[in-house]
Amino acid sequence: MNLQGWRFDDDHDSFSDADTITNNVTIAPDESVVLVEGMSPDDFRAWWGPQNLPNRLQIITYASIGFSSSGDAVYLWNAAATAVTDTVASVTFPSATRGVSFGYEPVAKTFGAPSVAGRSGAFAATVNGDVGSPGMILNLPRFTGYNLNAASGFNFSFVTQSNLNYLVEYKSDLAAPTWIAFTNFIGAANVFTVTDPVIGANSARYYRVVVTP
Fold this sequence. Notes:
Layout: E1 7-9, E2 19-20, E3 33-37, H1 41-48, E4 58-62, E5 72-77, E6 89-93, E7 102-105, E8 110-114, E9 123-124, E10 131-132, E11 143-149, E12 153-159, E13 165-171, E14 180-186, E15 191-196, E16 206-212
Parallel strand pairs: 3-4
Antiparallel strand pairs: 1-2, 1-5, 5-6, 7-8, 9-10, 11-12, 12-15, 13-14, 13-16
């Protein structure tokens, strides 16, 4: 869906006050696009941490609406709308808690509860520890780095969510019928690093990360 010409506003619910997406932005199924007030995309990524955000996340800066921390609303219109009642979606939200966004619960399809790190894609920002879920509803494990160290072995890192249970498994041969458990843990930070001391320069292993109940 091309979002060019789409408009959004707070509880003024007015075309004249609304901000309009003027550039050519296409949103794909299951994709999230971030609209941020008065902040550049680079500053937004630095705030939340590039390693915590989806690859190729689209971030659009708009000038000003002035959402109220004491409660407000969001109204969204497509480019063809001719009446303020012809919204694509609208939602109200209560008083906000500083540093905590309102979240969307994908199973119940409800919006408005404070975001909690480790639930529905929410995590702590790199700067200030603010909690939100920019760019995602569910934050699955995503590898962020790896290296082979002659002294310590093979190291790799991946995105985690606080309070979720993780299981790291491996195979030495992809054709093997079962995966072997390497370690399990409860996420306590945005990124977790695993070190496998067995792997050397002439060895090979394949890894996977599983989120468990």
